[in-house]
Amino acid sequence: MQLLLPMSVLMLLTFIVLILMVLSRITAVQSKRVKAGYFKLYNNKSDQEIPKHIIQIGKNFSNLMEMTPLFYITCLIYMHLNQINDFVIVLAWGYVAFRLIHSIIHITSNHVLYRMLTFAAGCVSLMIMWINLIGKNFL
Question: For position 40, what pLDDT does the model report?
Answer without folding.
Answer: 80
